[in-house]
């Protein structure tokens, strides 16, 4: 490529970056600005009098620490549970010739066709009947066992299909049964698929919004996305610096992990069997 | 001790050897069923039964506040046919989905092609374009809501260029554009990465051959790149369309469906009917409509794969 066209490509890339990077930058810097500076004109890219006041209010106005822990443990439990359910089912679909496998696979895949929003009303009624509304159970059980884990099962299956037959035969010779083959042979090799499933399951759970606002009603049970929308003043107006401080706190840990492990993130998600 | 005691007995057993019941085949049957059992039970309990209940509820008038649950037959469907708010909701959903899919796929492909050049620093740019994917959805939406206010960052920036920007979230046209744009930059990084993976799978010799034949860069893109990555285009378009039909958080945070009903998409309308107005029966009817739309679009795209997709692995 010529020097000139290289420069053009770099310039185009730089301009394209703005709407991707600027909002996150603006979120983090504005959260450090005093209220008087938030709408200053011309806008300042860096706070003149940085203050952590908004961060103090984040924790004073509602139990944000508790809500943070809620989101964190729900996402961790959902990710671990999804890995168990999807790796077992994915392995069985890929490697075990059992009667009825075809029919069961079609039934499970049907889960991909039914968005959560379609079944939210009956699911609400079901969990209400069980007395589990305003608990975290629906936010854990539905993703782990229901439609959201189907994609994970599909990805695990696509991965297990590619394992060479000889590996399992060698395992058989060593006296391993089905569970042994799964646990000692297939699963240790499935790290890339496990990584991809973990990342997208964690992100999915961390971002859930409709389900928490339908199922949860008390502030100490809220998850982060729900909590972020609660920082309003007595007139219902947004308290921007506090909202943005809380938003920054919600985004930072995942962003930091992403920057440190961006190869695994990007390649993991690119590898989810969606290449076609 | 029992093991030792058992052994002589086993040796002493001299009767005719029966074929063991637990053959490898039978063990496999059992293992297979046990391993898929949690997933199968979950799908039945949390997808299939609820889907049946949606149909059942749609035949009832169910007002939770009044405590009534009465069979009304097709009344909810009649309401659906004559609901003055349904048309605008479907229109908003259609505009959002169409706008998002077209912009998302073209931008994703454009960025992927740029990043597929042999250039230093493409990994850094890839990371930057991808980063919104990992920012909490509601956090991303909140900061855009802040930027798009009348006196917010976007208009301050336009002001520097001498342009008087509109109040983005308060005008019916600009509100829809805003919601689309916010979602576009949030999610385009994922499609870009999928396209990049596909582009890297295109054999370099094909480009060489096309170059020797004198094909221009555009012709090479049209005749080599596009056909070879068409399976990925199909999959990303299915995922993006189905995802766009589910948009909720962005609407709830940015516009609450307004101004008027200009950004009240189907899922938001369904949420309002069921969980704000407590019309669960009519909400279920709307859920069913959403399901039919998702199903129809998926089947349609799958049917069209023969025409779109150059080859299937």
Automatic annotation (TrEMBL), chain A:
Topology in membrane: Multi-pass membrane protein
Record's protein name: Multiple sugar transport system permease protein
Record-linked CDD domains: TM_PBP2 (cd06261)
GO cellular component entries: plasma membrane
Location (main, coarse): membrane
Location(s), subcellular: Cell membrane
Transmembrane portions of the chain: 7-28, 72-94, 101-124, 136-160, 181-203, 238-261
Keywords on record: Cell membrane, Membrane, Sugar transport, Transmembrane, Transmembrane helix, Transport
Family: Belongs to the binding-protein-dependent transport system permease family.
Positions of the ABC transmembrane type-1 domain: 68-261
GO BP, sorted A to Z: transmembrane transport
Pfam family, one: BPD_transp_1
Keyword check for GTP-binding: no
Species the sequence originates in: Kribbella amoyensis
From TrEMBL, chain B:
ABC transmembrane type-1 domain segment(s): 90-301
Main location: membrane
Family annotation (Pfam families): BPD_transp_1
Keywords noted in UniProt: Cell membrane, Membrane, Sugar transport, Transmembrane, Transmembrane helix, Transport
InterPro entries per UniProt: ABC_transporter_permease, MetI-like, MetI-like_sf
Cellular compartments annotated: Cell membrane
Gene Ontology CC: plasma membrane
Chain segments annotated as transmembrane: 30-59, 94-115, 127-147, 228-249, 280-300
Swiss-Prot/TrEMBL GO biological process terms: transmembrane transport
Signal peptide: none
Bilayer topology annotation: Multi-pass membrane protein
Family, similarity comment: Belongs to the binding-protein-dependent transport system permease family.
PANTHER family hit by this protein: ABC TRANSPORTER PERMEASE PROTEIN (PTHR30193), INNER MEMBRANE ABC TRANSPORTER PERMEASE PROTEIN YCJO (PTHR30193:SF37)
Name this protein carries in UniProt: Multiple sugar transport system permease protein
């Amino acid at each position: 490529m010529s020097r000139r066209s290289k420069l053009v490509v770099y310039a185009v890339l730089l301009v394209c970056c703005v709407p991707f990077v600027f909002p996150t930058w603006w979120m983090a810097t504005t959260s450090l600005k005093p209220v008087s500076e938030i709408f200053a004109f011309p806008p300042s890219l860096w706070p003149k009098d940085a203050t952590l006041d908004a961060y103090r209010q984040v924790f004073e106005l509602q139990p944000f620490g508790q809500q943070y822990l809620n989101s964190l443990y729900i996402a961790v439990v959902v990710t671990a549970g999804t890995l168990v359910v999807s790796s077992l089912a994915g392995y069985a679909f890929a490697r075990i010739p059992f009667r009825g496998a075809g029919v069961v696979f079609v039934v499970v895949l049907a889960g991909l066709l039914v968005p959560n929003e379609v079944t939210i009303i009956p699911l609400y009624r079901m969990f209400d009947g069980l007395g589990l509304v305003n608990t975290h159970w629906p936010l854990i059980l539905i993703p782990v066992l229901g439609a959201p884990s189907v994609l994970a099962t599909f990805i695990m299956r696509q991965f297990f299909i590619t394992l060479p037959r000889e590996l399992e035969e060698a395992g058989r010779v060593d006296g391993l049964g089905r569970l042994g083959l799964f646990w000692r042979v297939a699963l240790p090799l499935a790290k890339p698929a496990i990584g991809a499933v973990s990342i997208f399951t964690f992100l999915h759970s961390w971002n859930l919004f409709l389900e928490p606002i339908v199922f949860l009603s008390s502030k100490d049970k809220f998850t982060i996305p729900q909590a972020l929308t609660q920082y309003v003043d007595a007139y219902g107006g947004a308290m921007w610096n506090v909202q943005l401080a809380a938003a920054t706190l919600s985004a930072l840990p995942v962003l930091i992990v992403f920057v440190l492990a961006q190869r695994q993130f990007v390649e993991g998600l690119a590898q989810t069997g969606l290449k076609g | 001790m029992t093991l030792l005691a058992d052994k002589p007995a086993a040796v002493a057993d001299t009767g005719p050897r029966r074929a063991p019941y637990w053959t490898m085949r039978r063990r496999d049957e059992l293992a297979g069923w046990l391993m898929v059992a949690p997933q199968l039970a979950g799908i039945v309990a949390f997808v299939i039964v609820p889907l049946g209940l949606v149909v059942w509820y749609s035949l009832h008038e169910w007002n939770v506040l009044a405590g009534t649950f009465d069979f009304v037959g097709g009344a909810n469907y009649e309401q659906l046919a004559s609901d003055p708010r349904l048309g605008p909701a479907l229109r908003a959903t259609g505009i959002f989905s169409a706008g998002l899919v077209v912009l998302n796929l073209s931008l994703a492909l454009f960025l992927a092609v740029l990043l597929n050049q042999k250039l230093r620093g493409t990994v850094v740019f890839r990371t930057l374009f991808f980063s919104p994917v990992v920012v909490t959805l509601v956090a991303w939406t909140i900061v855009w809501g802040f930027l798009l206010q009348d006196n917010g960052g976007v208009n301050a920036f336009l002001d520097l260029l001498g342009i008087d920007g509109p109040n983005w979230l308060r005008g019916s046209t600009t509100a829809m554009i805003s919601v689309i744009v916010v979602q576009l930059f949030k999610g385009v990084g994922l499609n870009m990465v999928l396209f990049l993976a596909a582009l890297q799978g295109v054999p370099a010799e094909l480009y060489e051959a096309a170059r020797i034949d004198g094909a221009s860069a555009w012709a090479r893109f049209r005749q080599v790149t596009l056909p070879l990555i068409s399976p990925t285009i199909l999959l990303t378009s299915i995922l993006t369309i189905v995802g766009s039909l589910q948009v909720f958080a962005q609407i709830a945070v940015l516009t609450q469906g307004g101004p008027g009903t200009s950004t009240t998409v189907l899922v938001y309308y369904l949420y309002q009917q069921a969980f704000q107005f407590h019309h669960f029966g009519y909400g279920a009817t709307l859920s069913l409509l959403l399901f039919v739309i998702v199903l129809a679009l998926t089947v349609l795209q799958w049917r069209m794969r023969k025409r779109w997709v150059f080859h299937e692995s």
